[in-house]
DNA sequence: CCCCCCCC
């Protein structure tokens, strides 16, 4: 029944692969045929770290232990490799880990399966002492084993200042090893970030290194930043050694490695010009159409045409009060969707392309404001008109057809389609009860829109006397004959009144107290706070009726909900970002749209 | 040793 296949194992393979290192010129030529005698899963004790597999590799005469690179785990999980499988080892390496040699299989090709063990192999480690090794397998080998020496051989034969450290695959780095060099491409380099905490001021930057076995994040602090920042360029390849390997805090990184590197004063980094064997960034593009299904905060890769470049703007960070430049781009792709991509900081300032370039971004964060949006984070990378197939195809499509196409928008600023009502998404309105039921994180705000009727407003302190200097808005104190701003250290003859309003907004499910600033008051009262203040001082009846007019008004409001702790009391504050009187024409047509969707 | 990734 079964076909008799006579597999020829490569005798001497075990001794030889035990000597292999990544840049060993012979190792890539020596692709032995071996048999796996056993496969054992070493379960990961961490949710974000894959299980590992240990193989017993036999050359028919000897066997050694080896680890399967985790990117090959699938071969075991899908049954391609099992006990007694015969395979050609195409790529492998060997390191000393805790004084033990450990072979890592990086690539292999399955040749076939046999029902049993070939030959009667014995343990290479057990039978062979390092000093006596040459006697062990040399008679039968197809490639001569190297003379085993306790010290690893030189890593970089062509470099003048050789180090006695082997080139390691990134995948094999661990805190247990200190003599190693990796050869890796910088796929991401951050700006220099400054921080201050209890221990004082500091600065840092980080990079992502990648080789064909994996990637790893590296961070440099303080004086090491000065030393290395300008010497490391995104896209280039370097030899890196004598960095510290630490356990990665993975919740802060989307780099797929359980370890990360700390670049120290003693770390050696040297550019490598032979980059042929190093992979470039790999993308896993999500079509813009499929963003609908992307989870908030997911890190994804996207490629699109820049349909629109918005002006440079800025935001004031609510947590740090710092002003941060930002620029929105509208990306489109062949799936017929558009999405907003926000660039920050230097990248926002430096972006100047005026045509419609292709942009490929890796590791951008998905937001859910008014639909779906994308935001660059410090570990994201952006590539303009990258020389990759997807980019050429996209450019061809846009030039021939795409530039005339219309797109379904994922986000508010993109305009069109789902968003109407003066920028408030009528399709995603929440009732006041739904607002109260929202799950709020302890520090992150949530945004929502509602339609409410104003039932009350806090009558006292609708307005406050504010500093009239541009952008100050601070409350000023009455000196009797003048008004003083403590912040600007100036006095003014008259203040500029500004609104600070508390509305009670109700719907059929309940009510919420909503805070609004000056822009909201302007909409609600239809006059400036100065004018309302004049009425209050000079025409009390007119003032009362102006206030009463707001009561019972119906508004669409775009709001921000945020937890707030004051005097040990935690409560949720609701701020109005935008307030628009109900427009019956817009609202009715929206209701008609909804009805027709049911028909 | 950062770990915030900002705003609507």
Q: Main traits of this protein?
A:
599 residues, alpha+beta, OB fold (Dihydrolipoamide Acetyltransferase, E2P), five-stranded mixed β-barrel, 12 helices, 33 strands, 15% helix, 38% strand, DNA-binding, zinc ion binding, DNA binding, Replication protein A subunit
Structural account:
- This protein is an alpha+beta fold.
- It folds into four domains: 13-135, Nucleic acid-binding proteins (OB fold (Dihydrolipoamide Acetyltransferase, E2P), Beta Barrel); 170-271, Nucleic acid-binding proteins (OB fold (Dihydrolipoamide Acetyltransferase, E2P), Beta Barrel), CATH 2.40.50; 295-409, Beta Barrel (OB fold (Dihydrolipoamide Acetyltransferase, E2P)), CATH 2.40.50.140; 420-462 and 500-594, Beta Barrel (OB fold (Dihydrolipoamide Acetyltransferase, E2P)), CATH 2.40.50.140.
- 15% of the residues lie in helices and 38% in strands.
- The chain is built from twelve helices and 33 strands.
- The strands form six sheets. Strands 7, 8, 9, 10, 11, 12, 13, 14 and 15 form a nine-stranded mixed sheet that branches.
- Strand 26 (477-478) and strand 27 (483-485) form a beta hairpin.
- Helix 10 (529-538) packs across helix 11.
- The radius of gyration is 33 Å and the shape is elongated.
- It starts with 12 loop residues before the first helix and ends with a helix.
- Keywords: DNA replication, DNA-binding, Metal-binding, Nucleus, Zinc, Zinc-finger.
- GO terms for molecular function: DNA binding; zinc ion binding.
- Residues 447-589 form the Replication factor A C-terminal domain.
């Amino acid at each position: 029944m079964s076909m008799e296949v006579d597999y020829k194992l490569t005798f001497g393979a075990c001794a030889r692969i035990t000597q292999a290192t990544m840049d060993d010129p012979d190792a890539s030529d020596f692709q032995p045929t071996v048999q796996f005698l056993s496969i054992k899963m070493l379960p990961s004790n961490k949710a974000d770290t894959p299980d590992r597999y240990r193989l017993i590799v036999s050359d028919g005469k000897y066997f050694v232990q080896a680890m399967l690179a985790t990117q090959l785990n699938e071969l075991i999980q899908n049954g391609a490799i099992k006990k007694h499988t015969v395979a050609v080892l195409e790529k492998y390496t060997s390191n000393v880990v805790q004084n033990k040699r450990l072979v890592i299989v990086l690539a292999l090709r399955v040749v076939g399966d046999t029902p049993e063990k070939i030959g009667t192999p014995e343990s290479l480690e057990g039978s062979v002492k390092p000093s006596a090794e040459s006697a062990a397998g040399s008679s039968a080998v197809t490639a001569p084993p190297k003379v085993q020496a306790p010290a690893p051989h030189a890593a970089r034969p062509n470099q003048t200042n050789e180090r006695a450290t082997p080139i390691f695959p990134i995948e094999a780095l661990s805190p247990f090893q200190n003599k190693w060099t990796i050869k890796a491409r910088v796929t991401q380099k951050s700006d220099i970030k400054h921080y201050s905490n209890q221990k004082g001021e500091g600065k840092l930057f980080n990079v992502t290194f990648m080789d064909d076995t994996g990637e790893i994040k590296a961070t440099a602090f303080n004086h090491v930043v000065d030393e290395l920042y300008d010497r490391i360029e995104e896209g280039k390849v370097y030899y890196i050694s004598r960095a510290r390997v630490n356990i990665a805090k993975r919740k802060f990184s989307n780099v797929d490695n359980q370890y990360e590197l700390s670049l120290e004063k003693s770390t050696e980094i040297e550019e490598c010009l032979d980059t042929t064997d190093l992979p470039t960034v790999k993308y896993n593009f999500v079509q813009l159409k499929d963003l609908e299904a992307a989870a908030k905060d997911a890190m994804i890769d996207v490629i699109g045409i820049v349909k629109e470049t918005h002006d440079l703007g800025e935001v004031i960070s609510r947590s740090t009060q710092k002003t941060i430049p930002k620029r929105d781009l509208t990306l489109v792709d062949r799936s017929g969707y558009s999405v907003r991509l926000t660039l920050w900081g230097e990248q926002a300032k430096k972006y100047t392309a005026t045509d419609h370039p292709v942009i490929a971004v890796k590791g951008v964060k998905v937001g859910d404001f008014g639909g779906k949006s994308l935001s660059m984070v410090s570990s994201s990378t952006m590539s303009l008109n990258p020389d990759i197939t997807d980019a050429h195809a996209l450019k061809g499509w846009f030039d021939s057809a795409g530039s005339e196409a219309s797109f379904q928008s994922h986000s508010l600023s993109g305009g069109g389609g789902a968003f109407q009502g003066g920028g408030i998404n009528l399709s995603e309105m929440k009732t006041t009860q739904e607002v109260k039921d929202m799950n709020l994180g302890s520090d992150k705000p949530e945004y929502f829109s509602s339609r409410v009727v104003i039932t009350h407003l806090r009558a006292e302190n609708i307005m406050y006397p504010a500093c009239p200097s541009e952008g100050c808005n601070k409350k000023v104190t009455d000196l009797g004959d003048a008004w003083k701003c403590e912040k600007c250290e100036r006095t003014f003859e008259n203040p500029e009144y500004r609104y600070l309003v508390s509305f009670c907004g109700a719907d059929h499910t309940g009510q919420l107290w909503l805070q609004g600033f000056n822009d909201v008051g302007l909409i609600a009262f239809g006059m400036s706070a100065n004018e309302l203040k004049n009425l209050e001082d000079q025409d009390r009846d007119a003032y009362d009726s102006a206030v009463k007019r707001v009561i019972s008004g119906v508004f669409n409001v775009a709001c921000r909900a945020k937890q707030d702790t004051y005097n040990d009391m935690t409560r949720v504050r609701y701020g109005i970002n935008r307030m628009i009187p109900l427009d019956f024409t817009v609202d009715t047509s929206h209701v008609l749209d909804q009805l027709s969707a049911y028909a």
